[in-house]
Amino acid sequence: MNNQTLADTLRSRGISPTQQRLAVYQYLLDHRTHPTADTVYQALVAEYPTISRTTVYNTMRALFGAGLLRIVTIDAEEQHFDADTADHGHFRCTKCGSLFDFTLPANASQRLAPNGYHTEIFDVYATGVCPHCQSN
Ligand SMILES: [Zn+2]
Ligand SMILES: [Zn+2]
Predict the structure, then answer these.
(1) Ligand number with the minimum distance to the CA of 32
(2) Please, what's the largest Cα pairwise distance for the chain?
(3) Number of domains in the chain
């Protein structure tokens, strides 16, 4: 997405597209590694010396509130953020700490939610050891 498209996306969700907010959203679109707010802050502060941890965190909360991000709470210590808002599962490796995406069966949220309930957020979490760590 170019900057203009990104700005329009934020504007259409009621978020004023400042340079720093655009940088946060762009970073999350480019890095599908489920970063924490601190990781995003560390990555952006070199280019945006005036950015603060609070700005990064508040921007991510606002993007989440606008439906542009998912918050992954598989890790009790820290929230991770994901620009992929389509339903998918997350696997956390207890050895390397990485979060991996996995595909869910089609319409899993509708099929598994109880009848008569409208699901807004559907999270599937698994924890274990990734293939890389198993071979070490
Ligand atoms: Zn691992
Ligand atoms: Zn994900």
Answers:
(1) 2
(2) 50
(3) 2
- CB-CB contact of 91 with 102 (8 Å): yes
Q: Which two tokens stand for residue 96?
A: 């390397």
The owner of tokens 């599962």 is 89
Higher pLDDT, 120 or 58: 58
How far, in Å, from the CA of 93 to the mean position of ligand 1?
5
Cα of 121 to ligand 1 centre, how many Å? 26
Q: Are residues 68 and 8 in the same domain?
A: yes
Q: Report CA(57)–ligand 1 centroid distance (Å).
A: 27
Nearest ligand to the C-alpha of residue 33? Answer: 2
Distance CA 83, CA 26 (A): 9
59-114 tens-digit pLDDT: 999 999 999 999 999 988 899 999 999 999 999 999 999 999 999 999 898 889 89
Distance (angstroms) between ligand 2 centre and the Cα of 5 equals 23
User: Tell me: the pLDDT tens digits for 90-103?
Assistant: 999 999 999 999 99
CATH code, 62: 1.10.10.10
Domain that holds residue 61: 3-72
pLDDT for 1: 65
Model's pTM, two decimal places?
0.88
